[in-house]
Design goal:
mainly alpha
Length: 574
């Protein structure tokens, strides 16, 4: 292909070349839009090129057992961080060294850190701030504080990642949405039902629920919501609230640094452009840190925070790695040890967890909501805060769900073929075989008996039509001539074909309700019958029930259906 620099010279050949080059659908569409806009501005015709076909966008996720193992590992790491902070706060109030060696080490670190903070008057003192220098046991090989001293009071990068990943798991948000939470905004508030000024406030002594609000930059700043209970230790509300309290001194330190850097920038009016640019970048970075939830103390002793270009906090095989990579690496080592025991007992072995990243958690969350909602895509759309249902469908297009759907279809075909070999296609039996696996002889006999029962005009079967209950006031000595089946709990049997008849009777009762005196309506128990009909309709598909009721309502209003007990004049007038 020769280079073309005039949009007027672009032809269908260039479109074909783009297709053969496997240009993505998005890139092709953007380029076509630019070409068409330019051509139409010049008075030329648009191209009418066809977009490339949508490629397979199936998302690959590990099996449920592996996902649960990763969730449990992340939750344990986050819980250990909270437990260490609570233990540190408790030991800082004690003057007696604990007997346990680990607690004794933490006790020395936290008390020493608190003492040098008071002595230096700084949140993060340096060796230069101490007149007598660092205690020998608290000094590392290069002459600065050991990491364990600062980490006894403030979170490190690993701690921040542990809490952050647990929040990503439980919110279902994009990682960027959680990272960009701005503490200057109301991101974490009591739920409106716990508002003291709300007239509908529940009778509780204190607020029980929270609402977490974030903004999704990729959606134009659209707000994302998560609600939960404060008492849930692994929930994002409790985690973020605890984390904000822990890093509050670090935020004040960053604010002081920001004021100093701003003052320096204002005094650089005559400095070189490169120097002013570097100082301006420093100011903007500190502004981002002041707003961030995820502050921590880096290994060099400076305050840092989680952002899109954060350094790796984990270590795998002696090399820096992402936090979740180290978690998965340690998890696979545990699974290998478990497999050694399982091999001795001749049990099934566990497979290694594949590569996992934080952005995969949103797909896992969608799969969880999809299963919890029995396949309702609207639940997935609401949980993931999607504007389009098609986007939510893409999140459930996974190798696991697709394989389960294929297996289910294959199993149904096998059941259908086996039934055809017997010489029958019974929908009731097919449904039972698919759901429960087998049909016993007693169940087949019961089904046959129910199908031979007489049916009323509502297509409801009756176990004993010759002996209707006394409260129906049927004609004595004859089969039931009342056929108010929803008042006959003793004999009525609902069938799949009963839907239309129950809907018909429900609309008949609604027509009678506007005609009969209230005394007759209550004495003859029409109110109970209407309620029973509406409850029976809930056993069927909602859309089919509404369609059937609408059909009979129109037929009664048009005089096409006679309602027993309603005078003909009422039908004629209607």
């Amino acid at each position: 292909m020769t280079r073309v620099e005039d949009v007027g010279l672009i032809t269908q050949i260039h479109s074909e070349y783009a297709h053969r080059s496997r240009m993505t659908r998005q890139t092709f569409g953007q380029f076509r839009s630019l070409v068409d806009t330019t051509r139409m501005t010049l008075g030329l015709r648009q191209t009418y090129w066809e977009l490339p076909e949508v490629q397979n966008t199936q998302k690959h996720i590990p099996p449920k057992e592996q996902r649960d193992a990763v969730r449990f590992a992340v939750r344990c790491a986050s819980r250990k961080v909270l437990e260490r902070w609570a233990q540190s706060d408790r030991l800082s109030q004690s003057d007696t060294e604990p007997e346990d060696s680990k607690e004794a080490e933490l006790w020395r670190n936290v008390r020493y850190m608190r003492n040098i903070q008071k002595e230096a008057g700084k949140v993060l003192p340096t060796p230069d701030d101490l007149p007598y220098g660092i205690a020998p046991w608290a000094r590392n090989t290069i002459g600065t504080f050991k990491l364990s001293v600062r980490e006894s009071v403030f979170p490190n990068h690993w701690d921040a990642d542990a809490v952050w990943h647990q929040c990503v798991l439980n919110t279902g948000w994009n990682p960027s949405t959680l990272t960009s939470l701005d503490v200057n905004k109301k991101i974490l508030i009591n739920h409106f039902k716990d508002n003291a000024n709300d007239p509908h406030r529940r009778f509780v002594l204190s607020a029980e629920n929270y609402e977490l609000v974030g903004e999704k930059e990729r959606a134009g700043g659209k707000e994302q919501f998560v609600t939960g209970q404060w008492k849930t230790l692994d929930g994002p509300g409790h985690l973020i609230k605890t984390y904000l309290e822990r890093v509050a001194p670090l935020r004040e330190l960053l604010k002081q640094q920001l004021d100093q850097e701003k003052l320096k920038y204002e005094q650089m009016k005559e400095a070189d452009f490169e120097v002013r640019t570097a100082q301006f970048a420093q100011v903007k970075a500190l502004e981002q840190g002041v707003c961030s939830v995820w502050l921590y103390v880096a290994r060099n002793g400076n305050v840092s925070w989680i952002h899109d270009k954060s350094r790796k906090s984990g270590i795998v095989n002696g090399k820096p790695a992402a936090y979740i990579e180290e978690v998965v690496h340690l998890l696979n080592k545990q699974r290998a040890a478990t497999n050694a025991q399982r091999a001795e007992n001749k049990e099934a072995l566990l497979t290694d967890v594949p590569h996992v990243s934080a952005k995969d958690f949103r797909v896992w969350f969608a799969d969880y909501v999809y299963r919890s909602g029995n396949g309702n895509m609207l639940h997935v759309q609401r949980a993931l805060n999607h504007a389009r249902l098609g986007t939510s469908i893409g999140y459930t297009n996974t190798n696991i769900l697709n394989q389960e759907a294929s297996d289910a279809a294959r199993r149904f075909i096998d059941i259908l073929v086996s039934e055809l070999e017997v010489g029958r296609v019974d929908l009731t039996i097919l449904a039972h075989l698919y759901r429960y696996g087998t049909v016993t002889a007693n169940q087949e006999e019961t089904l046959t008996q129910l199908r031979t029962l007489p049916k009323s005009r509502m297509k409801v079967a009756c176990k004993d039509a010759a002996h209707p209950p006394a409260h129906l006031n049927a004609t004595a000595g004859e089969n039931c001539d009342v056929q108010r089946c929803m008042l006959c709990l003793e004999h009525a049997v609902l069938l799949p074909e009963s839907l239309d008849g129950i809907a018909m009777r429900a609309e008949e009762l609604r027509a009678l309700q506007g005609f009969l005196p209230i005394e007759t309506w209550v004495e003859d128990r029409y109110d109970i019958e209407l309620k029973s009909n509406l409850l029976a309709l809930r056993k069927f598909d909602l859309n089919q029930s509404m369609a059937a009721r609408a059909k009979w309502e129109q037929a009664i209003a048009a005089g096409e259906h006679y309602v027993p007990g309603l005078p003909l004049t009422s039908h004629l007038s209607s």
